[in-house]
């Protein structure tokens, strides 16, 4: 079988190689997932919660080592990688605490003696996950899925095999039964086969549009549910009433978080013309002051992009934007030397005729636009195929309400940076995908919402809602 390589983006060094599992091993693991589901679904919620809390403890105890694995494998700064492990512990505890309430029976009115809905698990769920948040993307799926009584099988990005195996080890150390969560070291060419396997009940994917389309198409042919999060080109809108200093400082963080490789990173900065020059000068100054370097160094602000291929793609997108007429204000070329480094870059006034105007740009590259008024700001913000997040900076209630109602996005954060939070539903519209992760909505995506009708009073005795009459 083909080999997977773990490459350090800061040096280009190959850290480890892993062979894909053979077909026989894949079959064994899928059979194990199906068998484990039949028993795991009957485990009481309180017991599931205890193991999920133990997973949180394992993550916190090992956060430094796990963070180092993430940093070496995909280049995020060490402090952000450790914080990612801590956030994974948070989502584990969140669902351990709230799953019972989220999944509880809900009494409904009807002509029968008693009617209610019950959330029941559906089976093994395939998760196809990306490299940019190698732990968080997985745990925000796994914590609710396992608490709901499902089991998980992970096809992680092929360039983060060490992270993928470490996640499986966390669940094993936390006491989850064998087969409750499994990492499958397989390439993308085998995903369709796994999706179509009758033992897989559903699939979730975070990644590119192409990958999402392929998984959704395969699932559609066999009538299986999918949840997709396919990236974005988030707008960051700044109006004259905003606290400009706070907006600029947050804008720099929002563009360069995770070395600029985040689906919900702000990528297009749309600023009212009355303050655009002040914003531009302050923003470029702050971007230029960021330290680019070794992600293991505590003083580093921006590390490398994940791979040589991504570095080349990023360079091509910047070159195309400038060639089309964009004003290059900072950066604009790979750093050169060892590793896959691209400096913080700012380009203003990219015309709509440039592909870079509407593409998602993964890396520390910001596009600046000027807007005459609220109408034009909304028009520019919506003039992309994506609709994941959006950030709006204004202290005018009327403007705030316009943006909340009219921005085509799964989330709008007012005077704040877009971020995922276990307590809040997360997902997008348009070509950013469909479905929701996190919060109550996330745990209910992969359940059978069964309607139960008890026609006579004798059958209804002792059932949900009996004490309400």
Automatic annotation (TrEMBL):
Pfam families: Aldedh. SUPFAM superfamilies: ALDH-like (SSF53720). It comes from the Bacteria. The keyword Cytoplasm does not apply. Keywords: NADP, Oxidoreductase. InterPro entries: Ald_DH/histidinol_DH, Ald_DH_C, Ald_DH_N, Aldehyde_DH_dom, ALDH_GabD1-like, GABD/Sad-like. Residues 4-452 form the Aldehyde dehydrogenase domain. GO terms for molecular function: aldehyde dehydrogenase [NAD(P)+] activity; succinate-semialdehyde dehydrogenase (NAD+) activity. Belongs to the aldehyde dehydrogenase family. This is Aldehyde Dehydrogenase. It comes from Anaeromyxobacter dehalogenans (strain ATCC BAA-258 / DSM 21875 / 2CP-1).
